[in-house]
């Protein structure tokens, strides 16, 4: 069971220095990696049961005999149980295959180079998100203060909860099929209000139970009033006719993109929370003498973050902690860099971010500059 208590810190809202322009467009990312950006709506290779295995049907409707193509397909390790399998006809397609698993969930097989290039663009995305945070906070505050229960107010409440609790945004299909919940799918019984405190108790993804305490008088008041609306959904809004509508994850992402001016999603909050938490956890350790000691500290830090986010350590490290943080810790540059960057960023009036956030942002920008320099040298 995940159990944690959170008390938010206040933050201002001053302007940030503009980032150097960085390419985040997926089509351009694919091109830079020497790949073609494709879709499974394109014509592709089909799979047909044949004896104990499968045969593959090419674009012309003929069975594929080319050993090289068959070896590429076999290397994708598409599970036999997958249905409606589509396989890219191009060896350099960024998506190599798609299919639907036994629970009818769409699954993807990506080209290895695509994963590499998208990992690199995480630098830019995470930095851009950190720079957008003050803008997001500045917009949600007045929206949260609106009277009644309009759509913007409820969306603002969900976005603030995403930041302050790192709870998943939720998915209606998961709630319906698995009885697992996130913010947008929570029911009234999942939140208990006592004064300025909120206690969330719910079953999340993978059937894990969560107990999360938040001390925030404004949000507690809003959630209490929302719980008085008709219906079981916790996060509902009233339209102009007084009809209730529940908030969905797509509504939250659309609102977030509108106020941030960039295509961020609810998951970016969890990635940022994981990255900052990992930095703070590693900063608590004394300097290490051996690689083994450093790796042990990283394992402990990742475990701490996984408890905060409610993920397994493996998923947490892979998806929610920026790799630059772990790299900086291993190469010994992290502790001094965090201290230096915190001082620099605060001096540069970036106090619209919390000190620890400003320090992590500075570290990521430093690492991005190093990566960019390395790429430039390689191109020469």
Using brief descriptors, characterize the structure shown:
four-stranded mixed beta sheet, alpha+beta, Topoisomerase I, Chain A, domain 4, 380 residues, 14% strand, three-stranded antiparallel beta sheet, Viral Topoisomerase I
Structure description:
- The protein is of the alpha+beta class and 380 residues long.
- The protein folds into three domains: 2-20 and 145-264, Alpha-Beta Complex (Topoisomerase I, Chain A, domain 3), CATH 3.90.15; 36-110, Viral Topoisomerase I; 267-379, Topoisomerase I, Chain A, domain 4.
- Helices cover 48% and strands 14% of the residues.
- The protein has helices spanning 26-32, 67-75, 112-144, 151-165, 172-178, 217-226, 249-260, 266-283, 291-309, 313-319, 323-330, 334-347, 355-379; strands at residues 2-6, 46-50, 53-57, 83-87, 95-100, 106-110, 191-194, 197-203, 209-215, 236-238, 244-246.
- The strands form four sheets. A four-stranded mixed sheet has the order 1-9-8-7, covered by helices on one side.
- Strand 7 (191-194) and strand 8 form a beta hairpin.
- The longest helix has 33 residues, at 112-144.
- The chain starts with a strand and ends with a helix.
């Amino acid at each position: 069971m995940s159990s944690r208590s959170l008390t938010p810190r206040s933050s201002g809202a001053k302007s940030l220095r503009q980032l150097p322009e960085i390419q985040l467009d997926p089509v351009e990312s694919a091109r830079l990696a020497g790949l073609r950006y494709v879709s499974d709506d394109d014509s592709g290779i089909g799979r047909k049961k044949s004896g104990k295995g499968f045969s593959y049907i090419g674009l012309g409707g003929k069975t594929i005999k080319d050993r090289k193509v068959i070896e590429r397909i076999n290397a994708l390790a598409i599970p036999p149980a997958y249905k409606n399998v589509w396989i890219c006809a191009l060896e350099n397609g960024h998506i190599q295959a798609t299919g639907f698993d036994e629970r009818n969930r769409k699954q993807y097989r990506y080209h290895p180079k695509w994963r590499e290039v998208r990992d690199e663009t995480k630098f830019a995305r995470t930095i851009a998100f950190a720079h957008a945070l003050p803008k997001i906070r500045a917009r949600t505050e007045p929206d949260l203060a609106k009277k009644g229960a309009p759509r913007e107010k409820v969306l603002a409440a969900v976005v603030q909860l995403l930041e302050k609790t790192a709870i998943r945004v939720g998915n209606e299909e998961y709630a319906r099929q698995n009885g697992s919940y996130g913010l947008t799918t929570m029911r009234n019984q999942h939140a208990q209000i006592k004064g300025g405190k909120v206690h969330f108790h719910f079953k999340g993804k993978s059937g894990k139970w969560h107990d999360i305490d938040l001390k925030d008088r404004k949000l507690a008041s809003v959630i209490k009033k929302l719980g008085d609306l008709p219906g079981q959904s916790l996060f509902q809004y009233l339209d102009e006719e007084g009809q209730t509508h529940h908030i969905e994850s797509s509504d939250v992402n659309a609102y977030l993109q509108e106020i941030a001016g960039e295509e961020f999603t609810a998951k970016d909050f969890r990635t940022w929370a994981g990255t900052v938490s990992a930095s703070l956890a590693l900063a608590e350790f004394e300097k290490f003498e051996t690689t083994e000691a450093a790796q042990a500290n990283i394992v402990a830090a990742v475990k701490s973050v996984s408890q905060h986010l409610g993920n397994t350590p493996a998923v947490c490290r892979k998806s929610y902690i920026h790799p630059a943080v772990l790299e900086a810790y291993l190469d010994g540059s992290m502790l001094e860099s965090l201290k230096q960057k915190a001082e620099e960023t605060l001096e540069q009036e970036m106090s619209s971010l919390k000190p620890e956030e400003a320090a992590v942002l500075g570290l990521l920008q430093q690492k991005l500059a190093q990566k960019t320099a390395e790429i430039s040298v390689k191109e020469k």
